[in-house]
Design a protein that fits this description.
Order of helices and strands: EHEEEEEHEHEHEHHEEHEHEEH
CATH topology of the largest domain: Dihydrodipicolinate Reductase, domain 2
EC number: 1.2.1.11
Bound molecules: 3-amino-D-alanine
Enzyme class: oxidoreductase
Keywords: Amino-acid biosynthesis, Diaminopimelate biosynthesis, Lysine biosynthesis, Methionine biosynthesis, NADP, Oxidoreductase, Threonine biosynthesis
Largest sheet: 6 strands, parallel
Subunit structure: Homodimer.
Protein name: Aspartate-semialdehyde dehydrogenase
Structural class: alpha/beta
Number of domains: 2
Amino acid sequence: MGYKVVVVGATGNVGREMLNILAEREFPVDEIAALASRKSLGTEVSFGDRTLKTQDLDQFDFTGWDIALFAIGSDATKQYAPKAAASGCIVIDNSSLYRYDPEVPLVVPEVNADAVMGYGRKNIIANPNCSTAQMVVALKPLHDRAKIKRVVVSTYQSVSGTGKEAIDELWNQTKGVYVPGQEVEPSVYPRQIAFNVIPHIDSFMEDGQTREEWKMTVETKKILDPSIKVTATCVRVPVFVGHSEAVNVEFEDFLDEEEARDILREAPGCLVVDKREPGGYVTPIECVGEYATYISRIRQDGTIENGLNMWIVSDNLRKGAALNAVQIAEVLGQRVLKKG
Ligand code: 2RA
């Protein structure tokens, strides 16, 4: 006996990964529906060795369906998620719409799985921002051991975080640099992304940070601990998939780098690759298609009393979005729906 599962936004990067991961992890599915906007109607998407034809989100009746994984923008989520939730279908939403709503749990299962039990207030659970998810997976076990005071993070975020058109822009701009007459002007980003980096993701706020940077602060506080101070600089880099983060952590108590390495080696969702030699660390290319949050370059920060530096890398479409959503569905299945 399994679940009736809907994937909303099934033709997008994240929606397709949700279907892939539901199949890979053999989530107990009795029935599955792949929904898309009218313009993508009938597009075929893969679900394991099956092919699904997308159905029209606007016409779909969520009544009788158990879980809906939403991977569409905030505006469309605002229109359809409440309709799904009101019909009794529990929504797991990957947009930012509900993340900061005090009545909606914001969940990374390796960090705060118990928060799933708060789903009933709106019948909605929020998935965090991709750059937050991988960071809190690594911070949680260290926080439990030595209580984190402050985090300073610089991100190196791949273009797949923006979407398919950004992937195409990086590809075409890169080719255009080498092929005279095929130059591609920036359209997705304010500047050329090929062979460049852009210190701007999402919109600017009054205080000079971007919303992406603000998200990392607010979401880390909601998921892990409201007392942790977080300051972020989020940068777009010419990488197709895989977000990387240089993270500096200040603890209440001293934490030796070797002990930190041992803790992370045993921590859920974490994989330590950390040798002080060429190639003894993870780069985005190695994380693509994987589930793990990789941690490298673990080392003391001698400039403060109780500091550590580390390098955190993960597939932003997976742990940063689709995998985390499916893991939330697994927790729902085990603790709430209990059919599978
Ligand atoms: C990005 N975190 O990387 C944002 C949304 N996925 O663009």
